[in-house]
Amino acid sequence: MAATVIDGKEFAARVRGRVAEHVTRLKDSHGITPGLAVVLVGEDPASQVYVRSKGKMTVEVGMKSVEHRLEADTSEADLLALIEQLNNDDEIHGILVQLPLPGHLDEDAVINSISPEKDVDGFHISNVGRLGTGQKSMVPCTPLGCLMMLRDHHGSISGMDAVVIGRSNIVGKPMAQLLLNDSATVTIAHSRTNNLADVVRRADIVIAAVGRPQMVPGDWIKPGATVIDVGINRLDAPERGEGKTKLVGDVDYESCAAVAGAITPVPGGVGPMTIACLLANTVTACCRAHGVEEPDGLTA
Ligand code: GUN
What we know:
300 residues, 10 helices
């Protein structure tokens, strides 16, 4: 039987709709407008696209959007001063510094200078520790989006075998923590894992987050398993015309979809969920800052 295609685009629109409802409630009942500040240093083209899209969707759900674009040679002291100013700004509830940063800036120092309560990326060491110990935290957006899709599809993932391929701080590690907190049995695999195919074949849930195009073939997938593809890789596509490219994930979609029970496509799967979860985190941060009840179902 063909796999169910998990439509991240549609799911993300629903999440943004719920965020927008809560923004209206915060405005109408409490006179508060949630605010998100995005900081971009330098001119990385992919980052510019993300930042523009974040700003547009922030405004669409009724929140205040502030963008700070800094020169690529901005000093660390100037960047830290801007973050300090945003930390102290009562109209800003979420701060996101777009990564990667130019090489002369210490990424850890910059991230850890963000007030943990405003760290809507969930990358601050305090949020990482809180997630790892099961305490209330800000949760990284991409893994949160994957978790929402899994909960929606399965109801509960308790007791299921989950294999996360990839061990990044942004996706792999927090994803494993979230799955564990939902009582899945979790394996973190990566490029050096022995017998990776056999490890993946055990999984009821496969999360592919390695950043290697179409690396996971269908014959690694247990029949009926759920496949969540976090990869966004651009490949040349001469069949579409000269100079054309296409986006592919970390799994080989056709062969995996033939075996899986459910699968997320690329594009239109995990990608749209990331920004939706960023907006959800901003509303959550705003509610916590003002002691207002948090929306249900928008965090882990
Ligand atoms: N660059 C790629 N993904 C992310 C993300 O989730 N957050 C930030 N801040 N930068 C990124």
